[in-house]
Amino acid sequence: MGNRTLTFKIFRYNPQKPEVKPYMQEYKLEEVSGMTIFVALNKIREELDPSLMFDFVCRAAICGSCAMVINGRPTLACKTLTKDLPAKISLLPLPVFKLVGDLAVDTGTWFRDMAIKTEAWVHTTKEFDPTALEERMDNKTAQEIYEPDRCVECGCCVAGCATANIRADFLGAAGINRVARFMLDPRDERSPEEYYEVVGAEEGAFGCMGLMACDDNCPMEIPLQTQLSFVRRKMLAQGLKLKTEKVAL
Ligand code: FES
Predict the structure, then answer these.
(1) Burial of 25 (0-12, 13-18, 19+ CB in 10 A)
(2) What is the pLDDT of residue 1?
């Protein structure tokens, strides 16, 4: 290890300077032991090109901000070791999200819009009592909620999704996963009808083409298709109920 020279082809475009058309820039770097794409990008920025734009915060696959398309696959730069890749590495920004510059995209706006659309908070009629004892939840339910809650909002599932790439209003696996999280939560008092309003249409659970890219690309290995099937089953039952009611009228 350590004697490969890596060739990086990196997408360059600054929306603030539209007169310079997008292009791919090449950089060469000596590989070192334990090198991640995140380490390589910092080395390029420190030693070769301080103008290169990319995002990171935690360096530990927790914040989700370093997601990009690495050799054709959306994933986290800080979690990807160069030793697992060929010597030629291409880096592109995630599609779907607004480009900030080079490899940096704005996932925050997309995730905030999705959280507002899905009303991603516990809906309850209970008054908050700061003096009340903590409500206990059984371990099994807590574990089930924890599974979709592991999402780090990196956007890899959305970037790899064919539907999200062609329709801007699609909630994507991240949105449906979020809905599943609240459906599982016994504190949330929303009825199936209320959920149906949010995810019972083409831009929700039924827009998925079933290509499974979300599942394949999730760096946290959340079983996104399982969450989708769970939401779909609930919404299908609700859809049939609404249809039967309509026919009976
Ligand atoms: S830097 Fe936080 S997930 Fe990669």
Answers:
(1) middle
(2) 52
Which residue type, as a one-letter code, is found at position 172?
G
- Number of Cβ within a 10 Å radius of residue 107: 24
Ranges of beta strands (E only) in 96-165 are 98-101, 104-106
**Predicted confidence (pLDDT) per residue in 95-134, tens digit:** 999 999 999 999 999 999 999 999 999 999 999 899 999 8
Residue 92's CB: how many other CB atoms inside 10 A? 18
Query: Residue 93: how many CA atoms within 13 Å on its side-chain side?
Result: 25
Atom of ligand 1 nearest to the CA of 79: 4
Please indicate whether residue 66, judged by its CB atom, sits closer than 6 Å to ligand 1.
Answer: yes
Task: Let me know the angle formed at the C-alpha of 68 by 63 and 74, rounded to the nearest 5 degrees.
Answer: 100
Record the pTM: 0.89
Is the CB–ligand 1 distance for residue 59 below 6 Å? yes
User: Which residues does residue 68 pair with via DSSP β-bridges, in sequence order?
Assistant: 75
Instruction: Determine the straight-line distance between the first and last CA of the chain, rounded to whole angstroms.
Output: 73
The CATH topology of domain 118-248 is Fumarate Reductase Iron-sulfur Protein; Chain B, domain 2 (1.10.1060)
Q: Locate tokens 């996104």: which residue?
A: 224
Q: Which fold has domain 5-105?
A: Ubiquitin-like (UB roll) (3.10.20)
